[in-house]
Amino acid sequence: MKIAVVGTGYVGLVTGSCFADLGNQVTCVDVDRRKIAELKRGICPIFEPGLEEIIRRNRNQRLFFTTDLAKAVQNSDLVFIAVSTPPGKKGEVDITNVKAVARGIAKSINRYKIIINKSTVPIGMGDIVTQIIIKHGPKDVSFDVVSNPEFLREGSAVADLLRPERVVIGATRRNAAQKVAELYKPLRSPVLITDLKSAEMIKYASNAFLATKISFINEIADLCDKVGADVLQVTKGMSYDSRIGGQFLNPGLGFGGSCFPKDVSALVQIGKSSGFKFRILPEVLAINQGQRRFFLETVRKTVGKVRGKTLAVWGLSFKPNTDDMREAPSLTILPALTAAGARLRVYDPVSIPKAKALFKKVKFCKTPYEAAQGADAVLLLTEWNEFKQVDFQKLKSMVRQPILVDGRNMYDPQEMAERGFVYRGMGRGEVATF
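User: That's the sequence. What structure does it adopt?
Assistant: Structure tokens below.
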């Protein structure tokens, strides 16, 4: 198929590149001329495992990049809208970019098209896009608007698109939905066809539920810390129940990134605008922010006053395998520590270029050991794989005090004690020896 993808952020770039890799002719469009110039040279603007290889393999053959929206639309059969929908001041969804793209499509449309909302948009956005194109487009050209929400996780987005657990397509006409479904046919994944608004709601409901699981287990972790239980043993026992499962029961610093915080806040605002008041979701957000404060309090209890002390920070991105800093716990934790007078030495495998624009009072290091040199404690904020293979004997010889505060429960408390470290996790309590 001939496809245009408008927007080259995580969703648009992964979507366009992977569909090109499946044999389609794809043109990715963006207003950022510098980004497009880099993509034309095969340079990926984001860190996403496997993505740069796909871009280089397909560029100038099946994958093209341009700033010319009109030409891309006119030469395509399917047009994906994959631009950002950032949160407003009250958590509402800013749909300015989607509206602008819809107007651009309307002015460029020259024959029947299927316009596909891939951006995460408020319920009813499909109708809004339809009305924009009717208002600004030619009267003699037909089109359909379809909702095809994305379920891509940063760090595994390529795998998620090529091996999806489900594909959701919402439309007012089944023929349009089936045409989009053909695009996913090679992936052999379940396809659910719904009405437009149900498809839009599925995206929000899914993310809000997963965020709720994370906040729930973090509350349990906080209680475990007080009563002396080990939350990882608790989650293991829970996960054997098929009704519960183990996914997203990972206690720690809470969720971050561009999806969960934004989508939960958006759903709360969507409820308000519809005359409905959520009771659970505001608490989900409050608990999530509370985990950062809980971690800082754990640091103070373990290290004592941090003023004048050197702290090593391992990990800055909101999760491993991405350089995304949006809503990362580090954005709250590092400024709080520097404001309290701590000297910070930080390391992250890929996020430091972005982090340099965000943190001014820290020392950026090239290895986790360099960050730990002379430190009064090591703080782990992101569970990168390389931190699993730390030489703790070497680490102990480098730090001023063998203290490790683990915000992701990456290490075993008993093993850390045997290695001579004072260890504090999130909800680990006083772990018994069996």
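The chain is about 45% helix and 15% strand.
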